[in-house]
Amino acid sequence: MPCLYISTNVNLDGIDKDPIFSEATKAVAAIIGRPQHLVMVILKGPVAISFNGNKEPAAYAEMVSMGGITKQVKRDLIATLGKILEAKLSIPRTRFFLKVYDTTAAGNSSKL
């Protein structure tokens, strides 16, 4: 089951989060090649984040999947999720960081 955990310093009160969940779920499923009903998305905010020495809108995300992760998949996830966060939360793509774990790589848990 792929799990995407997004933390942001953007205040999410009053923001319709359903489109973020929907678009992120569809993107992860399509890019990794898993059914949507197996994708979990967690969105947390606001959390304290400083990036490049300032607290302007930013996001940090972790993607955990059992297989399906390649360098190209990672690039596609970064690009697509960055577009979603920029469109829905006004977080510039240059202020979004994604850490990806493939739990089947190198035996236990590895970073790509």
UniProtKB/TrEMBL annotation:
Q: Recorded GO terms, molecular function?
A: phenylpyruvate tautomerase activity
Q: Which Pfam families match?
A: MIF
Please report the name of this protein according to its UniProt entry.
Answer: Macrophage migration inhibitory factor family protein
Q: What family does this belong to?
A: Belongs to the MIF family.
Give the top-rank taxon of the lineage listed in the UniProt record for this protein.
Answer: Eukaryota
Which Gene3D superfamilies does the record match to this protein?
A: Macrophage Migration Inhibitory Factor (3.30.429.10)
Entry GO terms, CC: extracellular space
User: Which PANTHER family did the record assign?
Assistant: D-DOPACHROME DECARBOXYLASE, LS1-LIKE PROTEIN
InterPro entries found in the cross-reference section:
Macrophage_inhib_fac, Tautomerase/MIF_sf
Protein source organism: Salix dunnii
